[in-house]
Every structure is written in C-alpha cells, then in structure tokens.
Amino acid sequence: MRRLPLLHLSLIFLCMLPATMIVPVLKDIIKDRLGGSNATVSFFVSIAMLGAFLFGPVAGYISDRMRKRSSLIAVGALLDAICFFGMVQVGEIWLLLLIRFMEGAVSITVIGLLLAAITDRENDSSNPVFFQKGILMGLAGLLLSLGVGLGLPLGILGQTDPRLPFYIAALLMLVTGILALQLPESESIHTSRGQLSRLSVALRERPLILIPFAFAFVDRFTVGFLVSAFNLHLRESLAFGP
Questions:
Q1: Which is nearest to 31 in space by CA: 230, 170, 236?
Q2: For 147, what's the count of Cα atoms within 13 Å in the CB-facing half-sphere?
Q3: Torsion, Cα of 62, 166, 12, 222 (10° steps)
Q4: Residues 51, 101 contacting (CB under 8 angstroms)
C-alpha cells in the first residue's frame, strides 16, 4: 500500500486518450459521412457531457454502496469500448447521438471511479506515505491532463480513414477494462447513509467547496467550445486537416 499505485495512475492516462482522439475527425464522421450540421457536431460533444453529468453521481453512489471500484471500472471501460466501436457503425444521426449519450455515462464511470480509488488511497491512514497529502490526486490530475493533451494530436490518424481514431479509442478502452480487472479493491471505501442530505450540510459548513465545483463547470464549458465550434473553425475556415 505504500508503493505508488502505478496501475491506477496509468489507467487514468490511458482512458483519457480516447476522449480527445476522436475530436479532429468529428466533421468527417458527422457532417461529411452522415450529413449533419455544425450544430450536430456541437451537440455530439454536449450530449456526452449530459450523460456524464446525470450518471456521474449514480456511478459514485453505486460504487460506494457495493464497496467496489475495480470491477465497475472494468465493466464501464468495456462498455465504453463497445460505444466507440458502435458510433462508426451506425448510419443515422439520432442513433449516433444515443450511443454518444451512453458513452458519456460509462466514460464518467471509468474516470470518476479511478479518481475515487485514488482518494481511497489518500484517505487510508495505514498508508503514511500518501495519507491526506494530495500527492496522488496531484499525479492523477497531471496524467488526466496529459492524456487529454496527447490524445488530440493522435486524431491525425484519421487522415487515411476517419473511423480509425474511433477504432483505436475502442481498443484503448478494451485494454483499460482488461487491466482494471487487476486493480485491487480498496479496503478504505467510506460509506454512510443519507449522503445527498449530507452534501447540503457540507456546503453550509464549508462553502468554499463551491469554488472547485464552479471551476469544474467553467473548465468543461470552455473545453466543450474548443473541441466543437473552434475545431470546426479550424477545419472549415482555415482549411486545417485532422
């Protein structure tokens, strides 16, 4: 338990690569292949965020109640792989968006529970090396950002076939799911009843909690613009390739 959880941290990096790998070819898949509009491309990004927003708390609650992280991470990653593969098999935009919504839900399950597993490690008092020091969460944030940043240029693989980034994303999530089965289940998962009501109490007692919540919202808001409308501007107005 005192060793650095390299597998946990590596999976955080690995599962973030697919999130942006598909962005450079969204125009090719949605507009050119399926006849969608710029609004459809933007909605493709937004509907995944909606799925994540709605299902994130549910995934966390289920994980806490079952006292399991690893098995749910593995299932979520395997379902995510199926979603990435399925999105380039369909011929109707509404079906593509439906799968994308589900992809957002299972994607937040994977990354959310991986981060939860890291916090379990940091709240384990038997682990003095990392106990409540923020070291592991700092490394997790670093690798999360690195995965997003390196995933985007991999979209250049779509120059030969715009479906290829989706297939590679599916493969990466498949590997993530298989490796997640090797993660040990934490023995320090904290559970309690009435967690939703406890949230309002926590907000009253520590209102500064709202600051990271607000930051997360603004961060997602700006990222959504950059990977949808701005990406289309680069492709259509400036004639950039994937």
A1: 236
A2: 20
A3: -90
A4: yes
CA-wise closest residue to 85 among 74, 95, 99, 70: 99
Q: If we measure between CA atoms, which residue out of 9, 4, 187 comes closest to residue 114?
A: 9
Residue 156 dihedral angles phi and psi, to the nearest 5° = -65, -20
Q: Which residues contact 139 (CB under 8 A, 6 or more apart)?
A: 4, 9
The reported pTM is 0.84
Q: Which of 95, 97, 124 is nearest to 5 (CA)?
A: 124
* Helix, strand or coil, per DSSP, at residue 1: coil
Gap between the Cα atoms of 219 and 227, Å rounded: 12
Q: How big is the chain by its Cα radius of gyration, in Å?
A: 19
For residues 54-86, one letter each, b for 16 or more C-beta atoms within 10 angstroms of the residue's C-beta and e for the rest, the string is: ebbeebbeebbeeeebbebbbbbbbbbbbbbbb
Percentage, residues of the chain above pLDDT 90: 37
Residues 27 and 38: their CA atoms lie apart, in Å, by 8
Query: Distance between CA 207 and CA 211 in Å, rounded?
Result: 8
The mean pLDDT of 171-180, rounded to a whole number, is 95
Mean predicted lDDT score pLDDT of the chain: 86
